[in-house]
Write a structure and sequence with these properties.
By secondary structure, this protein is mainly α. It is built from 2 helices and no strands. The N and C termini lie close together (11 Å).
């Protein structure tokens, strides 16, 4: 699978990896 991200989306993903582990789990479920 090829994943493509916008720069903004990647920055937001990195923010959640550092700030909110619960929200990160929810995001990963969607991916």
């Amino acid at each position: 699978m090829i994943q493509s991200w916008t720069d903004d989306a990647w920055e937001e993903f990195e923010y959640w990896t550092e700030q909110d582990k619960k929200k990160l789990r929810q995001i990963k479920k969607l991916l």
